[in-house]
């Protein structure tokens, strides 16, 4: 099981770290997220304790506020002390090449290279996420979760593996049993009058065995020449930071394909059992990684969308 570790300095950001921890536990499950890896047990070399804790960690979140460097009694900061537990946590993660996401809180900006010990200078090149404790907290946490969703999947037992209107963020609502009739969701945005008419309602199979039979959800699959050039995707571009997502936002054709993929995905999901939805979720996460590998190459991203739509239409 993937693990998310949270590193922070109690005197700097204990309260907001608790809020972040609670939201991530709700999202990924209490067995996935842990903190206080710097809690020292008497008589044990805490360097070894931290190393053991990070051995099973897939991503380290470094929560940094204005006091993260740690002011000492003199001009030197606590971070300059080689025995500082927070420093050792980050050093260990860097040495093991564990993904690190700095989380800047309480108005903190990313530390400059000159402020960091030589063993931590690589941290300055990690892309950071800002989390404000005020009115923007939910919005900022959503951005963090989108980044983590590429690494850690939500617990299948607690959440529904479903795409929602915000691309890359998965729904946390309970899974509903298949209904007698499934109406294909309307795309979030209706980009232009040139788009094809809405997809027709799909009828659910009469038996459980028939539920696994492939059924076309969009007929026919759009040809490249027929894809409208003016559209917006099914996710909120204002919350997108990944290179591939930004490429979709810039392209009307890719945005239209994202809408179509969202329609096909949701229509298929509503027909599946809970176990099948978990499989669908895992496949979607792998596809998102494939799309991310396309970076900003619109031709490759377009082919990835067309391939994924065809895959979902024949999914079984």
What does this protein structure show overall?
There is one protein chain. With 316 residues, the protein is an alpha/beta fold. It has two domains: 4-149, Toll/interleukin-1 receptor homology (TIR) domain (Rossmann fold); 181-313, no CATH class. It contains eight helices and seven strands; from the N terminus they run βαβαβαββαββαααα. Strands 2-1-3-4-5 form a five-stranded parallel sheet, with helices on both faces. A two-stranded antiparallel ribbon has the order 6-7. Helix 1 (10-28) links the parallel strand 1 and strand 2 (33-34). Helix 2 (46-55) packs across helix 3, helix 5 (243-250) crosses helix 6 and helix 6 (252-269) packs parallel to helix 8. The protein is elongated and about 65 Å long. The model is unreliable at 156-220 (pLDDT under 50).
């Amino acid at each position: 099981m993937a693990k998310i570790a949270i590193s922070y300095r109690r005197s700097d950001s204990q309260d907001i770290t608790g809020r972040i921890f609670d939201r991530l536990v709700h999202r990924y499950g209490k067995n996935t997220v842990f903190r206080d890896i710097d809690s020292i047990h008497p008589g044990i070399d805490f360097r070894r304790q931290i190393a053991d804790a990070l051995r099973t960690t897939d991503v380290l979140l470094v929560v940094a506020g204005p006091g993260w460097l740690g002011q000492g009694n003199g001009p030197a900061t606590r971070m300059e002390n080689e025995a500082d537990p927070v420093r050792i946590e980050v050093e260990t993660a860097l040495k093991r090449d564990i993904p690190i996401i700095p989380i800047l809180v309480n108005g903190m900006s990313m530390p400059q290279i000159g402020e960091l010990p030589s063993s931590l200078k690589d941290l300055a090149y990690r892309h950071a996420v800002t989390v404000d404790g005020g009115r923007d907290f939910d919005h900022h946490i959503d951005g963090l979760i989108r980044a983590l969703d590429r690494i850690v999947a939500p617990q299948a037992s607690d959440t529904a593996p479903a795409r929602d209107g915000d691309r890359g963020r998965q729904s946390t609502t309970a899974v509903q049993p298949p209904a007698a009739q499934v109406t294909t969701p309307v795309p979030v945005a209706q980009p232009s009058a040139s788009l094809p008419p809405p997809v027709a309602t799909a009828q659910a199979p009469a038996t459980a065995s028939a539920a696994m039979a492939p059924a076309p959800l969009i007929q026919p699959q759009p040809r490249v020449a027929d894809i409208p050039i003016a559209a917006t995707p099914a996710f909120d571009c204002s919350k997108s930071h990944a290179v591939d997502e930004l490429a979709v936002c810039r392209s009307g054709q890719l945005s239209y394909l994202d809408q179509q993929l969202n329609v096909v995905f949701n229509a298929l999901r509503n027909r599946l059992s809970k176990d099948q939805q978990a499989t669908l979720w895992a496949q979607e996460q792998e596809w998102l990684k494939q799309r991310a590998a396309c970076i900003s190459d619109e031709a490759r991203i377009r082919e990835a969308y067309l391939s994924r739509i065809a895959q979902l239409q024949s999914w079984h």
